[in-house]
């Protein structure tokens, strides 16, 4: 759903990490430092929304900060389409691999790991260490491929709840996510209401629109119609549907950016124009924006699994907590006991502010405490990952109140975007 | 989220103190154009009210979040579509009415979402304003410190003007208070006060 961490590194990191060499890279202030995931195995079968059962699974998990004795300072960060458990810090084996929400999470940052114990979980079905379509199916000894069950946001929440059990966390101080991660946070507040004190939903939506599903479907068709897809069982053919996956990523990427940002960054600038700035009158890259999208697509297709892309876009399509309540979102949100913070961005046309306002309206109707910030940022959907002072100030202010209400210590320092 | 140290009431402006007096303890309050959340924080901390604010400015929204006041960021000119009928006991519109484009609409919306409404606005009938006009100048005074060309105050009125509008919208005025600075003005308020505060009951 979002720009991947290498892309984030392109936009914001170079100034912060000028000399990122393979070893001995200094830890910048506000970073949680070097981190490595823990692989947690669950042998209790997971009953899925589809009716299928996942007999056992592993989840890749990273944590930052320390769980206090009362176990009331835990914050769960839910990831979006192409992100992972690697929320913050630098990967132990590659310091250039900076967590996807590193500007938000760290000592002295908005989600302050001096005080909060933050958990990032790679969802099942993903491809960064947790059980997914590329994992070995114990029943066959071969990769799951097309046989991997279709998952829903609710299935992810159920699996995440077991991670909370594993750490002995009865109730999260906050569950937080952007985009698809925001859907998971919302789902947590409904399905495990007594386990969520604060629910932070950023740049999200209570359900996809027909247009959103349309974009997802184009992406899926690009993958499925790639001759190397082999019905989803491409692993045993030793190939990946890289072309289809790259096209899927290209179309996704367009929806993450606003028209303004694309105009500003690329405009109609030509790439390698002919002499005197002439067009080349062909179908190879002619404009900068094409070059950029192709580069993003190719890069993505090298590290992301195509079946995971199908699975996660489908989970997005299915999400609609109001479905069982005749479309009445307020009724769907009735069980929620959390305090809510919602944030949207004015130029986000993928999940526009109106989608967040729908959630706000439903919460207000239920007399559920809610704060809503609508940030006038130019960056489109991607804004939730970027360094916007107002956005970060709202989140920091909110988390400082969460800390105060739990009797956690005062903030010791301010680092990162707001420093 | 109510642990913020309550400001001593003396630091709250006289008009806000009066507004707070008119609000029942423990009631649900919506503050339109809530600024940095001073009134709501006061009501939450001292009267156990459940409050929500509406504010457009980023900086004010951040200030509200920091002091634990629940706030919805939106432009009041867009109406109160986020709020259901009768969702609140009291809705407050403090020092904002005069700068709204659609004065009648916001008053109707207030009557829709809450049983009681409270509005405050600068009194255009304050006598030095008349003096200023006699001298050929638009008035520029403490409550209305702007020049004619840069003022956000596009719908100025006198006490009687407001009372007429309230009557035409079916709003029954239950209380009123008038101030000049921090002092309440009880004698000849139509001429001598700079700020008026009205409480009304919606016509239902």
Folded structure, characterized:
The complex is a heterodimer of chains A (419) and B (204). With 419 residues, chain A is an alpha/beta fold. Chain A is built from 11 helices and 17 strands. Chain A has an 8-stranded mixed sheet, sandwiched between helices. A 3-stranded mixed sheet of chain A has the order 1-7-8. A two-stranded antiparallel sheet of chain A has the order 3-4. In chain A, helix 3 (180-191) links the parallel strand 14 and strand 15 (198-202). In chain A, helix 4 (210-224) packs antiparallel against helix 5. The model of chain A is unreliable at 1-22 (pLDDT under 50). In chain B, 29% of the residues lie in helices and 24% in strands. Chain B is built from 7 helices and 8 strands. Chain B has an 8-stranded mixed sheet, with helices on both faces. Chain B is globular. The chains are: A alpha/beta (419), B alpha/beta (204). Chains A and B meet through helix 10, strand 17 and helix 11 of A and helix 3 and strand 3 of B. Chain A: Belongs to the AB hydrolase superfamily. MetX family. Chain A: Residues 12-23 have a biased composition (Low complexity).
């Amino acid at each position: 759903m979002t720009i991947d961490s290498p892309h984030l590194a392109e936009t914001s990191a170079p100034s912060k990490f000028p000399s990122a060499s393979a070893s001995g890279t200094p830890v910048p202030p506000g970073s949680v430092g070097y981190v490595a995931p823990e692989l947690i195995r669950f042998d209790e079968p997971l009953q899925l929304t589809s009716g299928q059962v996942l007999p056992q699974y592993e989840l890749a998990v990273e944590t930052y900060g320390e769980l206090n004795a009362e176990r009331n300072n835990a914050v769960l960060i839910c990831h979006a389409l192409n992100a992972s458990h690697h929320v913050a810090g630098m990967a132990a084996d590659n310091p250039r691999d900076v967590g996807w929400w590193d500007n938000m999470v760290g000592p002295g940052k908005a989600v302050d790991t001096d005080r909060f114990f933050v958990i990032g979980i790679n969802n099942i079905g993903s491809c960064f260490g947790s059980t997914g379509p590329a994992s070995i199916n114990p029943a066959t000894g071969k990769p799951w491929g097309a046989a991997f069950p279709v998952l829903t946001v609710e299935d992810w929440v159920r699996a995440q709840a077991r991670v909370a059990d594993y750490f002995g966390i009865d109730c999260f101080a906050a569950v937080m996510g952007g985009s698809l991660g925001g859907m998971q946070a919302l789902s947590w507040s409904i399905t495990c209401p007594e386990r969520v004190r604060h629910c932070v939903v950023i740049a999200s939506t209570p359900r996809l629109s027909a247009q959103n599903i349309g974009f997802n479907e184009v992406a899926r068709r690009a993958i499925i119609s790639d001759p190397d897809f082999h019905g989803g069982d491409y692993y045993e053919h030793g190939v990946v549907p890289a072309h289809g996956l790259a096209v899927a990523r290209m179309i996704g990427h367009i929806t993450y950016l606003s028209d303004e940002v694309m105009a500003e960054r690329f405009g109609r600038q030509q790439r390698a124009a002919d002499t005197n700035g002439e067009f080349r009158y062909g179908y190879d890259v002619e404009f900068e924006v094409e070059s950029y999208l192709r580069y993003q697509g190719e890069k993505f297709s090298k590290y992301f699994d195509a079946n995971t892309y199908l699975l996660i876009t489908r989970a997005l399509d299915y999400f609609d907590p109001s479905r069982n309540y005749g479309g009445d979102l307020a009724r769907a949100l009735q069980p929620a006991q959390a305090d809510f913070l919602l944030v949207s961005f004015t130029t986000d046309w993928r999940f526009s502010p109106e989608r967040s306002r729908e959630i706000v309206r439903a919460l207000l109707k239920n007399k559920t405490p809610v704060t809503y910030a609508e940030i006038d940022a130019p960056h489109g959907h991607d804004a939730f990952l970027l360094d916007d002072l107002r956005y970060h100030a709202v989140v920091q202010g909110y988390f400082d109140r969460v800390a105060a209400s739990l009797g956690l210590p005062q903030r010791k320092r301010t680092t990162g975007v707001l420093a | 989220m109510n642990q913020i140290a309550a400001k001593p009431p003396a630091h709250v402006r006289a008009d806000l103190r009066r507004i707070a007096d008119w609000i029942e303890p423990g009631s649900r309050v919506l503050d339109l154009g809530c600024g940095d959340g001073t009134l709501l924080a006061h009501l939450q901390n001292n009267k156990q009210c459940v409050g929500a604010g509406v504010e457009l400015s980023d900086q004010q929204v951040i200030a509200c979040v920091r002091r634990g006041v629940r706030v919805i960021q939106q432009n009041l000119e867009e109406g109160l579509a986020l709020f259901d009928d009768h969702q609140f006991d009291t809705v407050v519109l403090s020092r904002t009415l005069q700068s709204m484009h659609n004065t009648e609409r916001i008053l109707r919306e207030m009557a829709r979402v809450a049983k009681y409404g409270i509005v405050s606005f600068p009194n255009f009938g304050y006598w030095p304003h008349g003096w200023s006009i006699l001298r050929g100048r638009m008035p520029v005074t403490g409550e209305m410190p702007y020049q004619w060309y840069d003022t956000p105050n596009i719908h100025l009125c006198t006490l009687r003007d407001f009372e007429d509008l309230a009557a035409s919208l079916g709003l029954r005025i239950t209380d009123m208070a008038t101030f000049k600075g921090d002092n309440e003005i009880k004698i000849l308020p139509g001429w001598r006060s700079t700020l008026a505060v009205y409480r009304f009951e919606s016509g239902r």
